[in-house]
C-alpha cells in the first residue's frame, strides 16, 4: 500500500484538509450522461440525488451539465449555465456548506459558477485544451483546479490513443500542466490521469497499474473510474451492472494512494475507504 501524502486546499479562505481519501459524488444535471442512473434532468431528481449523496457521506459534490461521453449532443454555453444554476440552487438549499466542484471546460462558465453560484473548485476534463482562457481564469478566481488528461475532444478522443508509454506520457503531460498552472499563480492543483479519455481498455489498466508514479507531481491525485468502459467492456456488461467492478478499482486506487475518488455511488466508495483504512491501521 502506498503511503498517503497529505495536502490542503484553500477554498477562498476555507481550508479543506486532505488527510484521508475524499469521496466526490457526481451530480449530472443532464439528460444524456453515459450512465442512465446518474441523470438528474429536473429539480425532483436533483433533490433526491443531493440528499442521497449527503446522507451517504460525500465530501465533495461535482456538478456537471455537459455530457462528455463519446457521441454526446453539443450543449450551448447558455444551456450549460442554466442547468448549473438550477442544480446549484438545490445544492445550496439542501447543503449550504457542501464543498462543490463544477465539471466544465468553459472558462466563462467556470467564472460564473464561482462568482455567482458559489462553486469552490473547477474540474476541467480538457485540462485547458478546449478553452485557452481557462488557466488564466482559474488563476484570477483563486480557486483549486482539477487538471485532467485528455486528447482531442469527447467526439474524437478515442481515435487518439497512440502512446509510447501511456503512464509516462500522461505523467509528463500533467507535469507540464501543473508547472504552467503554478507559474500562473494557481496555488492548488489536483491531477486526474483521465481514465477512459483517449485511452483503450488495456491502456486504462496500465495506467491504474502505474498509478503510484503520479505522486511525483506533488499534488493531490483524483481517480474517476466509476462505471466506465474499462469495466463494462472488460466484463461484457453495461454501465448499470458495473458497480462491483467500480468498487474493486476504487479499492485498488486507494491502495495506491488516491486522494479523491470521483463516483456515481457514494456509499460503496465510503465503505471501501473505511475497509482500506482499517487494514492500514493493522
Protein model, in words:
The protein has 282 residues and is α/β, with parallel strands linked by helices. Helix content is 40%, strand content 16%. It has an eight-stranded parallel β-sheet with strand order 8-7-6-5-4-3-10-9. The two termini are 12 Å apart.
How much of the sequence lies in strands comes to 15-25%
- How many angstroms separate the termini? 12 Å
The Rg value, from CA coordinates, equals 17 Å
Total beta strands: 10
Query: What's the order of the H and E elements?
Result: EEEHEHEHEHEHEHEHHEH
Please bin the fraction of helical residues. 40-55%
Q: Biggest β-sheet, characterized? A: 8 strands, parallel
Globally, the shape reads globular
- Helical element count? 9
Structure class: alpha/beta
- Any low-confidence stretches, pLDDT <50, length ≥5? none
Query: How would you write the strand order of the largest sheet?
Result: 8-7-6-5-4-3-10-9
Provide mean pLDDT, rounded. 92
Amino acid at each position: 500500500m502506498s503511503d498517503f501524502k497529505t495536502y490542503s486546499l484553500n477554498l477562498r479562505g476555507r481550508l479543506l484538509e486532505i488527510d484521508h481519501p475524499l469521496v466526490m459524488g457526481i451530480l449530472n444535471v443532464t439528460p444524456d450522461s453515459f450512465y442512465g442512473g446518474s441523470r438528474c434532468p429536473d429539480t425532483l431528481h436533483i433533490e433526491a440525488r443531493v440528499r442521497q449523496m449527503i446522507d451517504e457521506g460525500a465530501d465533495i459534490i461535482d456538478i456537471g451539465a455537459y455530457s462528455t461521453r463519446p457521441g454526446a449532443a453539443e450543449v450551448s454555453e447558455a444551456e450549460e449555465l442554466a442547468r448549473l444554476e438550477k442544480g446549484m440552487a438545490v445544492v445550496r438549499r439542501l447543503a449550504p456548506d457542501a464543498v462543490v466542484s463544477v465539471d466544465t471546460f468553459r472558462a466563462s462558465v467556470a467564472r460564473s459558477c464561482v462568482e455567482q453560484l458559489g462553486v469552490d473548485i473547477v474540474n476541467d476534463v480538457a485540462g485547458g485544451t478546449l478553452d485557452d482562457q481557462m488557466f488564466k481564469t482559474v488563476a484570477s478566481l483563486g480557486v483549486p483546479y482539477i487538471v485532467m488528461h485528455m486528447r482531442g475532444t469527447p467526439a474524437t478522443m478515442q481515435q487518439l490513443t497512440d502512446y509510447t508509454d501511456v503512464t509516462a506520457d500522461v505523467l509528463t503531460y500533467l507535469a507540464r500542466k501543473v508547472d504552467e498552472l503554478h507559474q500562473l499563480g494557481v496555488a492548488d492543483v489536483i491531477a486526474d490521469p483521465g481514465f477512459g479519455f483517449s485511452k483503450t481498455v488495456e491502456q486504462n489498466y496500465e495506467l491504474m497499474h502505474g498509478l503510484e508514479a503520479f505522486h511525483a507531481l506533488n499534488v493531490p491525485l483524483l481517480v474517476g473510474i466509476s462505471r466506465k468502459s474499462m469495466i463494462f467492456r472488460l466484463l461484457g456488461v453495461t454501465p448499470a451492472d458495473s458497480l462491483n467492478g467500480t468498487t474493486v478499482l476504487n479499492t485498488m486506487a486507494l491502495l495506491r494512494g488516491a486522494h479523491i475518488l470521483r463516483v456515481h455511488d457514494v456509499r460503496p466508495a465510503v465503505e471501501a475507504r473505511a475497509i482500506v483504512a482499517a487494514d492500514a491501521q493493522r
